[in-house]
Design a protein that fits this description.
Low-confidence stretches: none
Largest sheet: 2 strands, parallel
Order of helices and strands: HEHEHH
Shape: globular
Structural class: alpha+beta
Helix content: 10-25%
Number of strands: 2
Length: about 100
């Protein structure tokens, strides 16, 4: 993880199930979870040309200990999750200046 601390890094995590990633999020400048986005759409989000709109459908556990202590038959049951179900950030994309005709 030392490499992440040397340079401001955005970590993109492809999720097909919850993951235990507290060390990654602590070391990165930003962490983006994606569930099958295209490269073009991801770059538009990262460069501010589009606004993220999704929310986590599951919680992201803060440790393996919390996963092991949770009940398998109860969703979102880990203690003190790193990110709770429904977590997500949004920001508005500035509108482009209208083109003026000469």
């Amino acid at each position: 993880m030392g490499e992440l601390r040397e340079v401001s890094s955005v970590v993109i995590v492809h999720l097909d199930r919850p993951a235990v990633i507290p060390e990654v999020t602590a070391a990165a400048a930003a962490t983006v979870a994606e569930f099958g986005i295209t490269d073009e759409a991801l770059l538009a989000l990262l460069f501010g040309d589009a606004s993220p709109e999704g929310r986590l459908p599951v919680e992201m556990p803060s440790s393996m200990r919390s996963v092991e202590a949770s009940r398998e038959d109860i969703p979102n049951d880990t203690g003190d999750p790193l990110f709770p179900a429904g977590h997500g950030l949004s920001y508005g994309v500035p509108e482009e200046e209208p083109h003026q005709l000469d």
